[in-house]
Amino acid sequence: MSASSAHLRLVPAPPLAAPLTDHVAAQADIVVSVDQHWLRFYGSRAQLEAEGFVPPDAKWPELATRVSWESGRYEFRLRRTRPEGMKGPKKLWMEGDYWCLDLDVKGRDYDWYQKQFIYEKARALAVEIYRHSPQGQREWFAHCDRYRGARNDTAFQAVMDKFIWPRKPGRKPKAASAFSQRERA
Which residues of the chain have pLDDT under 50? Predict the structure, then answer.
């Protein structure tokens, strides 16, 4: 991708092979999947080349093979993939023009991902342990007290009624605020 282009241009996809023409996957847009740790682009060869995601001298994979390369801090992996929503055996899409390009930071191997997974689970466990501790319980009850105080504060409710929950045109205001009405229900 060139340094001057900061947006994603959508390029119409060329006609697909016969098995895919009546299929949902005959899309005109590049699909971008953003995960916590990597980016994944789905589209036709023309789309990926037009965006500059694939270098002009890259060798495109044959059938079920993959092609990898590095550029700067990033690793790229290119492979054919099953179009979204397509059913049937692999032979129906293995020669089609629908590709998946993964972009990842160099050095993030299987072990790195496993350590991240464990770290995220450990962090979630620490949050739950704290939430059930005496300090966490005090914070929760203090939050509940602040919530009840705001709910019973008529000046605050007047602001909420004006700006947060605007009334539909033509409706008359109720005697009590909309926020407090919902809480009573």
Answer: 1-11, 13-26
Phi (first) and psi of residue 121, to 5 degrees: -65, -40
Distance CA 23, CA 1 (A): 29
Distance of CA 26 to the CA centre of its chain: 22
3 state SS of 153: coil
Q: List Cα–Cα distances, 174 to 43, 159, 183, in angstroms.
A: 53, 15, 15
pLDDT for res 172: 67
- DSSP H helical segments within the chain, as ranges? 45-50, 110-131, 134-152, 154-159, 178-184
Our measurement of the distance from residue 126's CA atom to the centroid of its chain's CA atoms, rounded to an integer in Å, reads: 26
Torsion of CA 17, 18, 24, 30, to 10 degrees: 10
